[in-house]
Amino acid sequence: MRYDKIYLEFTYPIEHYFTVATREEKIWDIVLPLIFGAIGYFLIIYFDFTIPTKNIDQLFPSVIILLSILIGFTISTVTILANSRDELKVETDRIIEEVKINLYQLMNIWFIITLFSEIIALVFNMVILLLASYGVPLVTNNINLIIAINIYLISQVLLLNVRNITNFYFILHGIPNHQQE
Question: Membrane-crossing residues (predicted)?
């Protein structure tokens, strides 16, 4: 493995994700949440569901709490995964830099990507809440778009977690699953 990206080491899991993820997984992880966000934006505009600016401070803290709980769950799962390293030595057909990776490495990539997505969503919501509390027009005038972006981010995090939990279930119960191959 090369280490030529000083202070950009966090990009390796992202690069590995795009290397090992199948087309279907990328659709599940990226395209489907985009569709949900677009549908959410359309419904907000079409039915005029605009959230009043004064209610922003009630919505975003709830989202921040949800994301914080999910981050804790993901970190706990990564810890469980780390303790299961020896049991997950089963080789997969996924390849990184011309080397087949094992199930432990594959699951580690999935959970790290989920953690990155959760952190991005959390930071996004914290920044929006901060800017909204100061009445920054960029936020208050674009609340519909911000809600649509939030729908995308949250649905992506939830779909990633559903896939990870399902794969983890298959692994723990020794059930063959197409994700492992």
Answer: 27-47, 59-82, 103-131, 143-162
